[in-house]
User: What shape does this take?
Amino acid sequence: MTYLARKAGFETLLLDRRGDAPATGTCHRFVAVDLTDHEALTRALRSVDLLLPATENAEALQSLVEWCAENRMPLAFDPAAYAISSSKSASDALFRRLGVPAPAPWPDCTFPVVAKPDGESGGREVEVFPDLQALERRFGLIPPSGRVLQAYVAGPSYSIEVMGRPGGYTPLQTTALEMDRDFGCKRVVAPSPLPSDLTESFERTAVALAEAVGLEGIMDVEAILHEGQLKVLEIDARFPSQTPIAVYHSTGINMVERLANVFLAPDRAEPVSFEPVSSPPPPPVTSVLEPVTSVLEHIRVREGHLSVRGEQIMAENGPLHLEADFFGADEALTSHTPGKAEWVATLMVKGSDLHEAWERRDRTIHEIRSRFGLTGYSDESPEERKGRVR
Assistant: This one.
């Protein structure tokens, strides 16, 4: 959010309990605050035009909803839609009601079976079981509450954002997702290689789901292409953490800027005008008629090894800063500083097509490994994880 907000020319104020939160290195101003403390929010949020939550903490979100209602502050968040999307069981019930293709629930499916926490995202605590014996060894005869069990469907993953209000939704660019060994998203490619007929079907599904939950704002839809059919895995009615940057570099479309228009100028077609910030924003990517290909991925350098991992590593190494031409990448959000032994980076690379983008990506990885003498390299997927299936 701070990256895209600055690209749009907005002034950014970050609120977080953690003094070393990743975005403290990319915002204009930072205030350490407990989001459930309304007095602290009132002190911090003077002269703010719009609040964009980037937390999944239920207590913090409820506090923000209540404070914004009391203070008439626009909040780029839909609590009713989020309540459905943040529960996999509630989302699955919605898919069944609408007839949206999705993995079959256990026990009405064959093995392998995947177990997911009902209220988590980002691949946390995901487990796959090859047979009934493995499932019963883990959970006994009756799986515990708070877990969603369904058929494990293999195939490439895709994501799409949809934005707007009831009766007026816009589906954005479809992206391809790649997962690490622990089912966390490690890489985003935009645009996706999904055929046009399936892309159009995915767009219609995303709009139908947005209409069904009465979305006001933005929602992400994730699906897997399995045996020629897109099966929706989950929806998430909050600002996505990775795909918007990839879409921005591919198309020039800035989802933070567009979301601001939804909440600050819902009846206007032109962008919202903000006062100039004290320091100039980074140069924007010009919106293009024909998208270029962008590749976004997360890397960690540690103990002579470069690993491509899910986004969770980006929260483990302190504040990030933006660097242009980062060892050949167009840009990077990184904790790297000269002499630092362990660091992380989100690399952003573009090309006229996937072949050129991937070649530039490979050259960037090679340059980093060469510059730092990194002999180890790993880029594992769930299928390559030893012991992934219990």
Q: What stands out?
A: The domain at 2-81 is CATH 3.40.50.720 (Rossmann fold).
